[in-house]
TrEMBL record:
Provenance organism: Enterococcus asini ATCC 700915
Protein name in the entry: Glutamine--fructose-6-phosphate aminotransferase [isomerizing]
Location in or out of the cell: Cytoplasm
Reaction equation(s) it catalyzes: D-fructose 6-phosphate + L-glutamine = D-glucosamine 6-phosphate + L-glutamate
Catalytic site positions: 354
Domain SIS: 40-179, 211-349
Amino acid sequence: EKGTYPYYMLKEIDEQPAVMRRLVQEYRQADGEIHIDSALVSELAASDRVYIVACGTSSHAGWAAKRFFEELTQIPVEIHLSSEFGYNLPLISKKPFFIYLSQSGETADSRQVLVKTNELDYPALTITNVAGSTLSREADHTLLLYAGPEIAVASTKAYTAQIAVMALLATAVGRTKGLAKATNFPVFQELGIVASAMESIISEKSHFSDLTAEYLTATRNAFYIGRGNDYYVSMEAALKLKEISYIQAEGFAAGELKHGTIALIEEGTPVIGIITDEVTGSHTRGNLKEVESRGAKTLVIASEALAKVGDQILLPQVHPYLTSLLAVLPTQLLAYYATLQRGYDVDKPRNLAKSVTVE
Ligand code: F6R
């Protein structure tokens, strides 16, 4: 039930802090350790490469998890789109482990790959919001997202829940391997900090509706840019904006803009920079200056520690592994308000279904 909310999407955005806390509850054992089946953890720990297979927003969650997963487990991670992977299996490592990310657990493109990897006897885990779903039943292992039903077509809380579950899993695997980075990463505490930080963003809704009126509502196109994790969030931010507001939006690696796409920047084109990484933040700022001098209207989403005077959206500090969980929130709200102001149905965008059960 959406209760007093005008749309499910807004309700689901608001639920994200509670989902983070529920994940802590569900995955924390009495002794403070991570409650994930030890057979799954040791099988993953013994693998030489992780293949994440997913579509759309779930594939973006895979990207958001790639770096911390590699750091915490010391296992290389590849992200693949199901619809590409299904037809042309790439060269697979000696001891692969497959992770299927799927909110619904019913996505046909992903299932098609799972059938194939099962035939090849590769171990597989499905991370899904729906217990008993097809992908859950057909994989060796399942981890649940505990996000509650997601009704709005545009996925929000499933994306953040997927990243959080990947963080729990990576920490468990790294600890099993005796890796200091994982042993020293207080994952439950850090997810609690994320939950509180999410609340502080959500409490400033009117700010976001003012920003969309100024930057997005009347535009034909828009760009999100960032580097590293901020680039991966940019891809999701752009998908969210285009799928419900119908503004043509692209997420770009900030440094790639000048290799072609900058030709699209005109007087007034909105370019939104995401800056949470201290190594690359100043470079992304440089790219924002480049587009500004060609007429772009720039908007900055920055971590407090990296913020500069004039930045429009500030993110409370969270652990560097988990910045995507926070950076995506303003972009969900911008997509929501831009759509509302353009007069479209936020929950039911044209041409889209909640779960895509055809290939
Ligand atoms: C976008 C969106 C889709 C889904 C994709 C995969 O907001 O919801 O891109 O993420 O269709 O769906 P699942 O996760 O159910 O496999």
